[in-house]
Amino acid sequence: MSEAGQEPGRPILLTAPDELRGVTQEWRCQGHRVGLVPTMGALHRGHMALVAAARAAADRVVVSIFVNPLQFGPGDDYQRYPRNQAEDLLALAAAGVDAAYLPPTEAVYPNGFATSITVDSASADRWEGHFRPGHFQGVAVVVAKLFAATGPCSAFFGEKDAQQAALVTRLARDIDLGVQVVVCPVVRDPDGLALSSRNAYLDGSQRGAALCLNRALRAAALAFREGSRSGRHLSCLASQVIESEPAAKLDYAAVVDPISFVPQVEADGSSRLILAARVGGVRLLDTGVLAELATWGASGQDRA
């Protein structure tokens, strides 16, 4: 056995906040930088890209796997959210992860748990907050608990959930937990579809229909590259692409400020296009910063 009871080639398995806290404190006492990758499991290449970024920036990496009930509302897919713990652990071992944090629900939310966190309503009530009431409050609680148990570290989140990443960045700053939030680029399949654990729900035809989100990004990018700076016009172009796909139901398409997520009348290169749509009952997100989208080739596969 190696340090902290770790078997060679396998991550330490942790199931309680105190266990996580003890291991990360030991690492820091040894002079190691700690990286945290929070996930809900069903790991894919997008998650593993976060792990790779954490490994590059930190000396020790812990990945949490916890399907957080507080961020699922009525009609959401909490019960059927994909759970592949055995496969996930094999992937983490292959990636050289040092510890895996897999707490049961009662360890995160013990009997009598009654604490909530109020997040900025000006941004949290828009977009994802509007379509998933209470979602960001649930995210804020679980992330705050993860940060508190891990202690000072760098925490790695994916850009695809851009509004969540912005909220978590503000949370870490406002509560002063000594956590640096690192947001990593969207990872895509070769055809341009953004990776998501929920993609597993899509059948063949639905997966093809889901590519309308990528086409929407490219349509707005082309207009921006050709000189359009109207946030409304760019949003409408993206909306029209998604609405032209019979199997897709648009939730929103908007050009927003990258920090506040307020809709922008006049877009610039730092503006972010955010998309959400349902395909076959599966809710999918995609996003991109306009200046970066404008560099895409015709296929939109630049980040695959």
- How many DSSP H or I helices? 12
The Cα radius of gyration reads 20 Å
Number of domains: 2
Order of helices and strands: EHEHEHEHHHHEHEHHHEEEH
Mean pLDDT: 93
Please bin the fraction of helical residues: 25-40%
Q: End-to-end distance, in Å?
A: 38 Å
Derived from helix and strand composition plus strand pairing, the structural class reads alpha/beta
Number of strands: 9
Shape: globular
Which fold does the CATH topology of the largest domain refer to? Answer: Rossmann fold
Strand content range = 15-25%
CATH class of the largest domain: Alpha Beta
Strand order of the main beta sheet, please?
A: 1-4-3-2-5-6
The CATH homologous superfamily of the largest domain corresponds to HUPs
| Largest sheet geometry | 6 strands, parallel
